[in-house]
Amino acid sequence: MDKKQETMLRDLQAMDIFLIDLGLYLDTHPCDKEALALYKKYNEQNNKMRSQYQELYGPLTIRHADGVDYWQWVADPWPWERLGG
C-alpha cells in the first residue's frame, strides 16, 4: 500500500468514527439542528472521499464491489505478507 492510499484510508476511517459518534449524539439530541447539519455535511464529504478512494484502489467492502468479476482484494498481498517485506 503506497503512502497516498494509506493516508486516504486513514482519513476515511477517522471520518467514519466521527460520523458514528455524531450519529450517537443525534440519537439522544434529535432536535439539535446544528449537529444534524454537521452530520449531513460530513456524510456527504465522506461519500465523496469513499468514491475517490474506490476509483483509485477498488472497493472497500463487499457492498461496494458491484460489477466486478472477482474480489479484487484477494489479488493484493495479505497484511502479514506486507509486513517485513
Short description:
With 85 residues, the chain is an all-alpha fold. The chain is built from three helices and no strands. The relative contact order is 0.12.
Give the topology, please.
Layout lengths: L2 H26 L4 H25 L21 H4 L3
Question: What do you see in this structure?
Answer:
This protein has one domain. The longest helix has 26 residues, at 3-28. It has three helices and no strands. With 85 residues, the protein is an all-alpha fold.
Question: Which features characterize this protein?
Answer:
0% strand, mainly alpha, 3 helices, 65% helix
Query: N-to-C SSE series?
Result: HHH
State the helix count. 3
| DSSP helix fraction | 55-70%
Based on Cα principal axes, name the global outline.
elongated
